[in-house]
Write a structure and sequence with these properties.
The chain has helices spanning 7-13, 16-57, 63-73, 79-96, 102-124, 128-157, 165-224. It has 7 helices and no strands. The protein is rod-shaped and about 90 Å long. It is mostly helical. The termini are far apart.
Length: 234
């Protein structure tokens, strides 16, 4: 009996619908684990790049030097660095067009940084919705396989004159394996989603804080220099 009720035997003796559900859930679980590890490494890199640039930014380095270095890096730079580049680039473009109004200069730089912020957050949140879907849908997919397997088991028992626990147990056990696999796929996805959501919120707060602080620096720079003598350096 123990051999008949082993996991492998239960999967092999399940109906083809239940086996298809199990296979689907296993593939979803493998994909979700790949997404979890990918997101784990990418968020760690984002955090390290942001912290490095923030240290350089507040170390007193020349902002034009930081801008030139960040522009050379391109996609190898971090989200905070790219937001900084977008804001300063727009600020300098407006200055080159002889725009001297402080409000226009600051508003243009802030809009550029906000637009880049949204793009960066879209990239950071990649695969997060997939993990949420896996966590919410997988148990129901497993439950569907369980219900189908139980229906199939009881249909097979309809022709028997005498039904005992020994005849019912294998069919029900086969069906319950689908629910177990569904939970196996869902639980890690839910845990990872909650953790990543908290980390992404911290990244968003860090970037928004930087936007406000850099806007203050630009505002002070505008106010410190006469409109006719504003230089291109900080």
């Amino acid at each position: 009996m123990s051999q008949d009720l082993s996991i492998i035997q239960l999967v092999l003796h399940a109906s083809w619908v239940v086996q298809a559900v199990m296979l689907l859930l296993v593939l979803v679980s493998i994909t979700s684990w790949a997404a979890i590890f990918s997101k784990l490494f990418s968020l760690r890199r984002v955090r390290e790049l942001n912290e490095k640039f923030e240290r350089d930014f507040w170390s007193g380095a020349n902002l034009n030097t930081l801008y030139a270095t960040a522009a050379q890096k391109g996609h190898a730079s971090g989200p905070m660095e790219r937001i900084f580049v977008s804001g300063l680039r727009e600020y300098q473009k407006l200055r080159e067009r002889r725009i001297t109004d402080a409000g226009t200069l600051l508003d243009g730089a802030r809009r550029a940084m906000r637009a880049n912020f949204q793009r960066e957050m879209d990239v950071v949140e990649t695969n997060l919705s997939f993990l949420a879907s896996v966590g919410s849908v997988s148990p129901y997919v497993g439950l569907f396989g369980t219900v189908w397997g139980i229906m199939h088991a009881f249909t097979g028992l309809a022709s028997l004159q005498q039904v005992t626990l020994a005849t019912v147990a294998p069919g029900i056990a086969e069906a319950l394996v689908a629910t177990a696999i569904g939970l196996f796929a869902a639980i890690p996805a839910v845990v990872a989603y909650n953790r990543f959501a908290r980390e992404i919120d911290r990244v968003a707060i860090m970037l928004e804080t930087f936007i406000e602080e850099f806007s203050n620096i630009l505002q002070r720079n505008i106010g410190a220099q006469p409109a006719a003598a504003q230089a291109s350096t900080f």
